[in-house]
Amino acid sequence: MTAKNALPLATAAAAALVVQGSMAFADEVVWWAPNWREDAARELAAKFEAENPGTTVRLEITVSDGLPTKILTALQSGSPPDLINAQHGWVVPYAQQGLLMPLDELVPDKDDFYPAAIKYDTWDNTLWGVPYRIESIAVLYNVDMFKEAGLDPDNPPKTWDEVIEAAKKLTHDDQYGFLITGGGEFGNTVFRSLPFIWENGGSIISEDMKTATVNEPAAVEAVKFYTDMLVTHHVSPPSTLQNDGTANRHLFAQGKGAMYEAGQFDVPAVKEENPNINFKAMMMPAPAGKDPASILGGWSMVVPKDAPNPEGAKKLISFLAKPENMSVLTYTFPARKSAMSDAKFQDPELQVYRDMLPYARTLPPHKNWIQITQAYFNGVQSVLTGDATPQEAMDIAAEEIQLLLED
Q1: Sign for the pseudo-dihedral over CA of 114, 119, 121, 125
Q2: DSSP states of 108-152 as a string?
Q3: Among candidates 200, 239, 245, 247, which has minimal Cα distance to 394?
Q4: How far apart are CA 265 and CA 329, in angstroms?
Q5: Mind listing the pLDDT tens digit for each residue in 346-392?
Q6: Is 108 or 13 the better-scoring residue by pLDDT?
Q7: pLDDT in tens, 277-314
Q8: For residue 269, what are the CA distances in angstroms to 182, 256, 275, 334?
Q9: Number of C-beta neighbours around residue 111 at 10 A
């Protein structure tokens, strides 16, 4: 079974819309940019147009829900946009299917980029995307709630057992101790639960990418730790099955959650929603005696193989990758070292996120990684709904993943 054939039949209609919506004129660059930085994208598009008279940038704003499938459908349609912002982990799988243009020429100064970011976009000794944003994950916690529960906010929990103990003390009435994600775009849950598997010495697939390992004891134990937040300990709300990272951020800002896994991009958003909230960030909890872990998250810019205006897209990428523009385009850390000098990246509140970066890992560069993580997510959801135990769910996921590894 190929990745293309694995797409639901319903995406045929989406493909038709993609073809219709992404047609561009010769002097126009169609750019798919995410809605969470739409303001920055519009600012930079206007600046690019001013510096390049006669060229226009047509922004088409994307949303996270269903985005991996939307992009894959566009890439396979024959009429994609010219430039797409995609998560790092999607780049190599798209390239392995022959859907992207190589972009080595756009990054002559690779030493100015963080090595892990370049590694993410590299396959077969070729660069298939230009990274512009990197990020780790940590845990935000409500200082006042900790005090009220008799917990020391200056000494937050560091281990899994300590987190569970604290979360139980912090759960009462309509307040929950640790919010987990279980819904929305599946990458939300993968981003937040996979680090626990790594911390415990497990993985979803073997290092040589030939064997499904998600049903081995270390992985299953980590899935149990994550899902037990809802299923056993009830320290995450009933809405967990619908909640993505944004929903949990709202609950945290509204004082209905004491702890939740968050990116640094959540910090200003929480403050904006509730200027009076008193919170801090702590390192990801890990099993006793083991190191924390995080997925090196972030985004890259890619040019589809069938882009109508590839030269225009490459010119726009070169513009966006300049340090002064990259610092505008991202509100997490930039993928380029020279862009890190911007004042907004020096905020002391972001120190924990900087501390987590050395523990951040890249995802396996398998062509079917998106489908692999979808199978894993489906398993996690079946545990959260009570339809399967962690072992049963991961056994089913492992069977599906093994087929994808052999494809």
Answers
A1: positive
A2: S-GGGB-HHHHHHTEETTEE--EEEEEE-EEEEEEHHHHHHTT--
A3: 200
A4: 12
A5: 888 889 998 998 898 988 888 898 899 999 999 999 999 999 999 99
A6: 108
A7: 999 999 999 999 999 999 988 999 999 999 999 999 99
A8: 21, 16, 10, 18
A9: 9
Q: Structure tokens of 231?
A: 């299923």
**Helix, strand or coil for residue 297?**
strand
Residue 190's CB: how many other CB atoms inside 10 A? 23
Neighbouring residues of 358: CB distance < 8 A, sequence distance ≥ 6: none
Reduce the DSSP state of residue 31 to 3 states and report it.
strand
Distance, in Å, from the CA atom of 11 to the CA atom of 2, rounded to the nearest integer, reads 15
**Dihedral-angle region of residue 167 (phi above 0 means left; psi in -120 to 50 means alpha; beta otherwise):** alpha
Q: Token pair for residue 150?
A: 């008799």
Find where tokens 């890249």 sit: 362
Non-local (6+) Cβ contacts of 343 within 8 A are none
Name the residue type at position 300.
Answer: S
Structure tokens at 132: 């512009």
Residue with tokens 């270390």: 218
Three-class SS state of 237 = coil
Tally of residues, the chain: 407
Radius of gyration of the chain (CA): 21
